Amino acid sequence: MEATPHRPTWKTLLAFAIIYFVWGSTFLAIRVGVREVPPFLLAAMRFLVAGLVLYGWMIAHGEPSPTRRQWRSVSFLAVLIFVIDYGLVFWAEQRVPSGIAAVMLATIPAFMALSEITILRTQRLTVRLVLALAIGLGGVALLTSRSLNLGGEPIDRAGAMALIVASMSWSVASALTRKLPLPPSKVMSSGAQMLAGGVFLALTAAALGEFRNFHPGTVSRGAWLALLYLIVAGSIVGFTAYVWLIHHESPTKVGTYAYVNPIVAVLVGYFLGGEALGLRTIGGTASVLISVVVITTTRVKKQRAAAG
To answer: CA 237, 292, 122: angle at the middle one, nearest 5?
Structure first.
């Protein structure tokens, strides 16, 4: 039996730091960008460039391009993930603080659990799961409620609804990923999805008239730097670190980014973006994260039981 090659600890720590802190900080970068660049157009630029880099990199290294059948699956997932999910996130961050947007998206595991129950039928609705879902939805209600006197303004209802729809779209796409024919290489599959998503986002931006309202010369250096950060750090470097971790660490450990990203986003938004951090934000964040922890640990226990 061959010995497992030793991996330097610093590489593992660096990869975790990237998916924790870089991905957590991208929410503020989005908010900076959409102040000056129309949201669907900004998202299109991010994923078109990142997708071209990843797709081109894989082609250059001899990875075959997706087949026609795989491109159909890639395109369908690109609409769910990039046009609906990311497009709505970019749109919502015109109206919702970046930290709160990250907290709202932390409800994705709850919707993924529901997708597994209704689409994949790999999970049953248990009392524990119902309680976890109730806690998570309670956190969302806390963030949006106008009747509770918790200090701080409740978040914009339209923005909140957009983020909920975005979370649902991501969860459905994640469930369908296991059923649709996709390229065997995770990097090629994701690069192709980003590329297709960038094209569809550009078409959506054009349909919404965003090109008419966009004047590159009036965009500040800060907004361009935010876009560059989203492309290089958030998409290319962040995704590379994630794929490396998936191949070297357990999915349970890698999945901890779902707990850390919202906390990082809230703190980055507070310290660097001047966003409020009151009782409402703290209570809503805590409720959503408790829900995420309960749901993901429930799933892990079921997987272990099945494997045993």
So the answer is: 95
Closest CA to 35 of 262, 165, 225: 225
Q: Cα 189–191–197 angle (5° rounding)?
A: 100
Question: Is residue 49 in a domain?
Answer: yes
Domain with 58, as residue range(s), is: 25-211+222-307
Q: At what angle do helices 98-105 and 157-177 cross, to 10 degrees?
A: 40
6 in a structural domain: no
Q: How many domains does the chain divide into?
A: 1
Mean pLDDT, consecutive 10-residue stretches, the chain (308 aa), reads 62 93 97 97 98 96 96 96 97 95 88 77 80 88 74 81 93 85 92 96 97 93 98 94 86 81 94 90 90 75 36
- Could you tell me if residue 161 is inside a domain? yes
Residue 70 falls within a domain, yes or no? yes
Q: Measured between alpha carbons, how far is 165 from 149 in angstroms, rounded to an integer? A: 27
pTM of the model: 0.88
